[in-house]
Specification:
InterPro entries: FN3_dom, FN3_sf, Ig-like_fold, RTP_Phos/Ushers. The protein contains eight helices and 33 strands. By secondary structure, the protein is an alpha+beta fold. The protein folds into six domains: 83 residues, Sandwich (Immunoglobulin-like), CATH 2.60.40.10; 87 residues, Sandwich (Immunoglobulin-like), CATH 2.60.40; 76 residues, Immunoglobulins (Immunoglobulin-like, Sandwich); 147 residues, Immunoglobulin-like; 36 residues; 38 residues, no CATH class.
Length: 507
């Protein structure tokens, strides 16, 4: 087999019929592909053919050709040959040129290579061309990467920026220009950046000096939309984004620089790796077994977390897990102080487990420790929601990115445990719940006892003192038989001595 190429992106393949062949020759099978492709393009040719021309080959690419004879049983052993097409200058420009960071004297840029078909060979380097919009003098910076930081710029100045790709044959066309304005020296350094990324939200943060006071709000611009933030705020969660999509965010302050760009960051939202929600299975003794969802791909996954959200009035503002501050939630761990506090404050969302891989099922509330997170028993008659969140490795970075990327599942259906209170709570919870109840019961018993004692004392005071029936009868008999006034007075006003004498008389 002989292959000859031309500058017209074609290759002519020529061959001769096999000298030795088992069975009747039915035709030929020709397959070819670039070395960076996975599948071959396959052609079936008649037995009378002895050549074929392949068109629309890429310039500066390496191809593999396979030719085999075919009989009634199928294709035989293939003859393999590899060729390279000649290079040329790129016919396409670099794509998606954008600003990813700004200071008073620098601008950080990123872009992507030209389309594969338009590269016409291996890209050896890039040239960034930039100039002050008020000056016609171009400046250039060369790099072999797809990112570059332009240094030595003037503060509060707008620059026009373009980039072009080079092969060994020369330069390709310049990309469409973008404009970028450096920060002003009058404005404090904000350190505008990304704190956390989910599939539909991005948490943006920035810093302000301690003595910075401004009544003017900040404005965040992205994808032809804008959001205002109060001047004393240092973070903003941008929601309702699309999964696995590039976004560029610009922070501006209208109060200090009219229309001036302050800082800019670019980010790609997380892919939607967990499309289904956890499914509840059965509950028993303060526990609930759930079926965990499947993950689309585990290539970028570092860890899995199972998050439990008690259904309260404050928690209902989160319509989906992407609206929560997942970065803050995953950094929290419950200690002894928090354990006491939770009975006073409303219940909050918590991490039940951290897992290296995702099992098929998981039991909520088994009171075990999972890599530093306690899977607390579920409270009786309290409704819960749960979801799974995967922490992803950041793609396209050098490993120093200081933000976290999450891909979370939807909320589960409401979970509710109905069981005996003693079974649904652990010992500390029982003490906190039963202690106040027992105290109230003891106080009620003491109050009842005091009331009964007082009532008894009042009855004693109201009843007459008992008298000696016998002495009373003697006194009445003497009064009835005596007519002497002196004797009657003596009987009415007796002295102790008289009483003793009277008792002797009775005897």
């Amino acid at each position: 087999m002989m292959i000859s190429t031309t500058m017209g992106n074609t290759a002519l393949i020529q061959w001769q019929p096999p000298k030795e062949m088992v069975g009747e020759l039915m035709g030929y099978q020709l397959q070819y592909k670039r070395t960076d492709e996975e599948t071959f393009t396959s052609l079936e040719l008649s037995k009378t053919k002895d050549h074929h021309t392949v068109t629309e080959l890429y310039k500066g690419a390496t191809y593999v050709f396979r030719l085999s004879a075919r009989n009634r049983a199928g294709a035989g052993e293939a003859y393999v040959k590899e060729i390279s097409t000649p290079e040329d200058v790129p016919t396409g420009f670099p794509l998606n040129l954008k600003v990813t960071g700004l200071t008073q004297s620098s601008t950080q840029l990123t872009w992507e290579p030209p389309n594969l078909k338009e590269r016409n060979g291996k890209i050896t380097h890039y040239m960034v061309v930039y100039r002050d919009i008020n000056n016609q003098q171009d400046n250039t910076s060369r790099t072999t990467d797809t990112h570059l930081t332009i240094e030595g710029l003037n503060p509060d100045t707008t620059y026009d920026i373009r980039v072009q790709a080079f092969t060994s044959k020369g330069a390709g066309p310049l990309s469409p220009s973008i404009q970028s304005r450096t920060m002003s020296n009058d404005f404090p350094t904000l350190n505008f950046g990304v704190k956390a990324v989910t599939k539909t939200s991005v948490l943006l943060t920035w810093d302000l000096p301690e003595n910075y006071k401004s009544q003017a709000p900040f404005k965040i611009l992205y994808n032809q939309q804008s959001v205002e933030v109060e001047g004393n705020q240092k973070r903003k969660l941008i929601m309702q984004l699309q999964p696995d999509t590039d976004y560029s965010f610009v922070l501006t302050s209208r109060g200090l620089i009219a229309g001036g760009l302050q800082q800019q960051v670019s980010i790609r939202t997380a892919p939607d790796l967990i499309k289904t929600k956890p499914i509840t299975q059965m509950s028993q003794g303060g526990k609930m077994t759930i079926n965990l969802p499947k993950v689309q791909t585990t290539t970028r996954v570092r860890w899995y977390y199972i998050v439990v959200v008690p259904r309260t009035q404050s928690m209902q503002r989160w319509k989906n897990p992407d609206e929560m501050d997942l970065e803050e939630l995953l950094r929290s761990r419950e200690g002894p102080v928090l354990r006491r506090r939770r009975h006073v404050e409303p219940p909050r969302a918590y991490v039940a487990a951290k897992l290296a891989y995702l099992p098929t099922t998981f039991t909520l509330g088994d009171d075990k420790d999972y890599m530093g997170f306690r899977n607390k028993p579920l409270t009786n008659h309290q409704e819960y929601l749960c979801f799974v969140v995967a922490v992803l490795r950041n793609e396209g970075t050098d490993g120093t990115a200081n933000y976290m990327t999450f891909s979370a599942s939807p909320y589960s259906d409401p979970i509710q445990i109905t069981t005996n209170m003693a079974q649904g709570m652990d010992q500390p919870e029982m003490l906190w719940v039963m202690g106040p109840v027992l105290a109230v019961v003891v106080i009620i018993i003491i109050v009842i006892a005091i009331l009964l004692f007082k009532n008894k004392q009042e009855r004693k005071r109201a009843s007459p003192l008992p008298k000696d029936e016998h002495s009373g009868g003697v006194k009445d008999s003497l009064l009835a038989n005596s007519s002497d006034p002196v004797e009657m007075r003596r009987l009415n006003y007796q002295t102790p001595g008289n009483k003793l004498q009277q008792s002797h008389i009775c005897l």
